[in-house]
Amino acid sequence: MFSPEATISSARSSLRNPRRRQRKDSDGLKEQPRRKRSKLSQEVTADSPPHIKVNGNGRPIQNGHVSHHEVENSMVLVDMPVRDRKPAKRGSRDDSAAILTKNENYSFKRLPGFPPLLANSSTPFRAFPLPSAGLALALTSSQAFVWDYTSTNASPKVVTLPLSFNLKASDPLPVGAVVRNGPTNDFGILAIAPSSGRVTFWDNVETAEARSHLSQRHQSVEGVVSKMYSGEIITDIVDIEHAGYILIFSTGRLAQLTLRDSQGRPSISTHFVQGNANTGGSFFSFKGLLGSGIRQSIASVKARPSELKGQMEVVAATRNGVFKLWEFSWSGQQVFRKEVDVHDEMLSALQIGTTPETHGQQEAHILDFAIVAGNKEERSLSFLVLVALSGRNALDYSLLELVLSDNSGIVTRAIPIRNFNQPQLPRDPSGTLVLPTPAHTAFIHFPDALVVASLAEHEDDAEAQLLSDSGSPSLPPFQDTIYFSNERHVHITGQAPEHSSKLAVPSSAVFFVQDFGVCQLSALPPASDDDDMGRRKITAKSKLEQSTFYSTVPNNIVDFSVASRYSFGEEEVEAAAMAISDGILASSYDALEKVTSSMDEQLRKRCSALRTLISTLRAEYPPLSTKAKWYLLWHGEKMAAALQLWRRYEERLQAGQADLDTYREMALWPQLVRVVHEKFKTKIRPELGETDAVRQYFLRDIGKLEVILPWAWQLIRTFYMSDKKADRPGIMERLTETNQILLTAYETAFAFREENAEIYGINPNDILNGILKPECGYDLIPHPWTSIHNLVNAVRSVVDVGRTLAIDSFEEEFAEDLAKKLAQDNPRLVEVDCQIHIERFTWLSEQSEERRRASGKSVKEDFNKHVRPDQIFNLVNIGLAAEGMRIAEKFHDMTTLARLVWNETQFLEESKETTQSKMERYECEVKLKRMKEQVQHYFQKFGDPWARAYYSKFIKEQETGALLTRGHFDRRSLTKFLRSDPSRARLAWINEVLTEKDYKAAGHVLIQGAASRENNSWCKKVELSVAKLALLAKKESMPEDEAKAEVRGPSDVDDALAEASRQLQYSKILDQLYERFEPDIKGAMDDEAAVQLLMEQYAQGRLRKRPHLRMLLQQGFEHMVHNRVLDPALLIDVLTLMTDDQSDPLVDGVYTNDFALALRALALSWHDMDKTTRHSTSKLIWKRVLMKDDWASINDTKDVSDEQLTEILVNTATGQAFKALVEMLEERKAYSVVWPKPLHELFGGGVKDSDLCTRFGADDLRKDIIKENLDDEGILQVHAEKHRLDLWFQETAKAAQRQVELEKAEAGQHQQQSLLIIEPEEPYINGGMEPEIDESLEVAASEAFEGDDEQSVADQDIDMEDA
């Protein structure tokens, strides 16, 4: 029987290199061997498109390309017996084809079979393929090339034939075809010069090239197309199978070209096509030319087998919508059948849905068409027509399904081309329609793009409504556009559809690209309803995938830009980007090899894909959210880390194989993959040949890198360190490999993050040491993979265990090589551990959940107190102090850096003192010198933070003397350090006096220290006195110009002297109080007994019923007993709560009235207290004064004279307090701030939370004290209601003022009362308001208080010495 593959075999055997066959001696050109059936070429592949078998009377095919392309129709005569064998199958073209772009619906690839001469040259050519035979013809101006374009060989065998047309460079390129030679299994070549009409025909490809070298042999059959008009050219050629070819002319004429005569011999003849019956002439006649050719330009011509045996049906369509049909025979006979004008029907179908106002401005033009099918019974013919609808500033393309029957046409369906965008509208639109079989997808070639349009039927209206009601969108058939790169200047020189008789197979077509090669576009059958959305419409994921995997293909002609062409939502883009990134990490794409001999190359390819993905997103799509940016960045980190981990693994395998003695343990990676839980890794499938678990992990599961890394530690801890029989070298070797795995992963990831943050749209300034800075977006991202809990704990444990093993091995001099490796890795691990701890607690601290913030606070505290300082400082134990200093510098841990410097300095100094070797001593001196230089460098680099840490180390080590004696310290920073903290006031004073020679600053620091840090009353008085001495010394040494300036106004030295005097006055009150208690304190057995004695004596009366006020009094006594400084509020409590009567003054004239001292203490401390506290305290003092007197008895004035009443009022506690205050006001006007308010305004003082909240933080204690104060206030309110306390309060103030005046008169002091700021009756005449005196404390003269002059200073110094 006849072989269906014989024809293809013969066609390709002619292109085989003759050297492949072993020649015999008798072989030669003189005696040609008889033709034998050629064997199948090794270049033939298995997926040759199945072919449609159609004979001359067969049914019409579906695309308008006639059955002569189907080589199975030819009869192959076998004249020699062959052994039975299985027919060879063609291999897959995909083996060596370069995919240019691909998605779920179609693929566009470059086939390898293309002549290098055409690929590497800019010589223009036109291509005419014969897909059924896999042959292609390329015609240049001087040569014809024939080759098997389906060959997998990048340099296929090419038959090259010369053309004798003598074309000029300006002449159009020849047209031609690969010709099937009837029943034989040979193929010929046809070439035609478009401008001259010269025709050359080679009837046999196999012998044509050989004959072209022999001038004496007949090479080809030549002819000419006669009766061409001047300037007329042949624009295209259409194969009409056994009837020859149809030539299309630029004038619109058509001609039939036949290549054989009636005897079957090669013979060239042409017959111009007759017009319709109404024209009365042929296309080549003058009348025919005017009647049709010029008026109607031909858009396209197609042919199919006719219903009449031996005839071919030819259909021509004009651009203005006229279809003409003929019948042709092989002998040149032609019969015109009909002409149908469908322009109006097409225009009406295209204008559906448009505004009526634009209808008159639009015009429809046919660009191309294809024959789809015909109905024999109804004598109809169906077409798929490519139409352009042009209007004002608009141009739309559509595919119309058109049915012609009799003399009418009906448009049954319009398919708009939705996804094709032209930046500039062409004046003369053009396009080529390519419709393969099965005809489920059409391809449209525009000048700068290829459109893929599904022809699947859209759901009818009822079904679409159901889908809409159910929430499922009703989507139109799939369409997409492959745009060509403008930079490549893509020009398609020929195209042809490929055919298959099967319906559920891809539709494909081939396109020949100038200076590039042969491309094949294949589209899958339409998607079913069950397919995902990517099969039904263009998605962001589809476009991103194409750009990610194929935009980096070398010399790709596809433009993957989506700007101005597609629009996708931000959420869709982000979801697509993250899904693609996941797929790359899992190697789930066909573009990523699943089986490879070079895992390194596969990993690099995935790294490149991730980089291309983010580059595309940044360039073409809306900005990503912070979460998406970091998600993609983390995937890039993992891939970069995986690449380096694989390289280290390969090095470990090679080292282990080369040195079995050193590497006694097997590599760690196989065990890691084995112990990881099944849900975190892809299962090995041995039935598919998968045997290597490690390769499988790097292929599929690298996205779960954070899961497997902690197992590097857990494996050692669980299976090795828990085994008491395990030898230490084995553990150390495992730990060394664990170190390498963790270091490789982390160092690569952090380096990638720093280097590529900007590429991912993250501000690189927000990254420090490989981690995100605080307050830079942690609240917007998930937990970073590098610092999950398990990893942080694992790295911390590895650091500690590795260092411990190294120390033990060094001390025992055991396995020192392994110990050295562990020690060398330890600093890098410490660095990583610090990074991930910082990242973890920073992320936790910036989350919204309180539980996470609390956890972050705990982690941060542990890190700052233990992890960082301990791990960095402990590097000293393995002899790596320098590395510790480097890490402390990196993380700005100045405290640990100071510890390291101190430790190293002490070690070098001790070594210098103890060594007997001069060389070692000299070496220590050199190192000490370098250390001093390093310290100076730290002062310059880190400034005050380093100074604080370094100098604090001296204080902590009780080497304060060294701070003032060592010369290599930075003087400025030392002074600033000592001044910055009042606790260092004494050292600061020494430094100011000895080093800075600044007595004013010395006085200031002592005053500040005494006020804020000194708790001992005596020491505070000493510091204030010394401060006053320093300020007086500054005043004495003040230059003359400064002294003159001082006369004009007080200087800061005067202000400081006034402050020192004020605080000394306060200390004097404490001294007076202590002197009262001194007999009881000295008479007690111990401090506790002294407090008890004081409480028994002074906590009587109403305090027995006021336990919490009693507690305040006891607290004050405890401070007095221990000579501690009492704050103003507590001192006032002691002075106002004591119950004994101590109103008699001392012999030296100092006031001993407790309430007077309280008022003085409050006035001196007025500006040290907040406004609420000082005013409430003033009210409390006066209320407690009033509680001392019996106002019921005073109110009973029966038989009491005015003189007696005045004496009674003056001798009350209230009167004595007023009398003392009036005398104090004569000393300083500033004491007016404590003059009382009217009685009704005193009520409410000290009984509110706001009054006591700054002093008592505990709510319970504060409420109890407020309650007892309210009880006292209640007693006063009773006196006010029943005994006219408010009036007696006023009269007592007046009586006290009169008594002071009387005493002054009796003493002979009748001076002008200029110092008295309150007239005797003014306070209560004017509404009971206090005198209007400025509340700010005036600067007192040096003689305002005792101890302000030089003599008193000396006396004070003597008192302090006695103390």
Automatic annotation (TrEMBL):
Pfam families: Nucleoporin_C, Nucleoporin_N. Keywords: mRNA transport, Nucleus, Protein transport, Translocation, Transport. The lineage of its organism: Eukaryota, Fungi, Dikarya, Ascomycota, Pezizomycotina. This is Non-repetitive/WGA-negative nucleoporin C-terminal-domain-containing protein. One of its GO terms (biological process) is poly(A)+ mRNA export from nucleus. It comes from Lophiotrema nucula. Residues 1-65, 1342-1363 are annotated as: Disordered. Residues 632-1290 form the Nucleoporin Nup133/Nup155-like C-terminal domain. GO terms for molecular function: structural constituent of nuclear pore. The keyword Nucleotide-binding does not apply. It is found in: Nucleus envelope. Residues 101-518 form the Nucleoporin Nup133/Nup155-like N-terminal domain. The keyword S-adenosyl-L-methionine does not apply. Belongs to the nucleoporin Nup133 family. SUPFAM superfamilies: Nucleoporin domain. Signal peptide: none annotated. GO terms for cellular component: nuclear pore outer ring. Residues 1345-1363 have a biased composition (Acidic residues). It comes from the Eukaryota.
